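Note to self: keep these together.
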Amino acid sequence: MATPETITTDIISFIEEKGGRTLDWYVGITSNPEQRLFAEHGLQKTGEDWIYRTADTAEEARRIGKYFVVAVKTDGAGFNEANARTVYAYKKKEHTKP
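Structure:
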């Protein structure tokens, strides 16, 4: 597992590297990142910009996710999944949900 600081830094660095406005990015938490990113949000495994990191606790994941929405001004929601320890981010496209 990674510290909250490491997770936050990794995701911010990824967003900066890939570019775009912060509102072009969606941040959420989940207990199943593969299902959430590819089945629910509709991303492709290759050729699109996405990242995820696993926190030690669900509370840490919620704090990190909310930080991105409130302070960094990304899009995002769904911070109420009880056992979600994975924080994910992806660059939104026309075909993704949202």
